[in-house]
């Protein structure tokens, strides 16, 4: 019997509210992911304290350690987020800060990273998505530029529209199939 390769994607949802459109999109991708792809929606981001270097180290708070472990054990990282005041919500920014440390060796370092989401404006949260991608890239992730998808929810319900769902699933596939360049050094 041969082992079936499995790609694990850690999913960071940038909205905490129960009725979140973006959480719903993350759940749709989880439920419709192709065979061999597992989406792990990281719960408890609201329990992770604001990043504080005084708290970090061997005794980092349990919620932060759990976040790091979930991301470190994943093959890919996908943020699914709305936009707050022209950037990413603080809960996502905080999660990225925790997985960026220790400097150069954080859980996100070297992980292919994508960011998608929907907001009820014509821009679909593009500033949030751009900022999250830049931040994750500075933290050491490999940002997959084709997996930055900002979906407007003005004239469409992203959770039920077949074209939007297909577009988001295609983005997930692009992230999963992305092959990082191997350094010749
Ligand atoms: C504090 C706050 C700030 C917001 N700022 C923006 C914004 O800058 N751009 C935008 O497109 N939507 C903005 N919104 C609207 C959110 O995109 C909208 O509420 C969205 O549905 C939230 O996503 P969710 O359904 O996943 O919770 C803001 C909402 C809140 C609560």
TrEMBL record:
It comes from the Bacteria. It holds the Pfam family FMN_red. Residues 7-149 form the NADPH-dependent FMN reductase-like domain. This is NAD(P)H-dependent oxidoreductase. It comes from Nocardioides daeguensis.
């Amino acid at each position: 019997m041969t082992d079936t390769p499995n790609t694990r994607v850690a999913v960071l949802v940038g909205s905490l509210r129960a009725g979140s459109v973006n959480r719903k999109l993350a759940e749709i991708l989880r439920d419709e992911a192709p065979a061999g792809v597992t989406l792990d929606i990281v719960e408890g981001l609201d329990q992770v304290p604001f990043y504080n270097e005084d708290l970090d180290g061997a005794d980092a708070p349990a919620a932060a350690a759990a976040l790091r472990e979930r991301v470190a054990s994943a093959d890919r990282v996908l943020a699914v987020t709305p936009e707050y005041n022209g950037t990413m919500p603080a809960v996502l920014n905080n999660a990225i800060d925790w997985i960026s440390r220790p400097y150069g060796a954080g859980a996100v370092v070297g992980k292919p990273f994508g960011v998608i989401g929907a907001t009820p404006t014509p821009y679909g949260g593009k500033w949030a998505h751009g900022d999250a991608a830049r931040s994750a890239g500075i933290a050491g992730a490999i940002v997959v530029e084709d997996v930055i998808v900002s979906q407007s929810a003005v004239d469409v319900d992203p959770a039920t529209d077949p074209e939007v769902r297909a577009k988001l699933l295609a983005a997930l596939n692009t992230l999963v199939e992305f092959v990082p360049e191997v350094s010749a050094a």
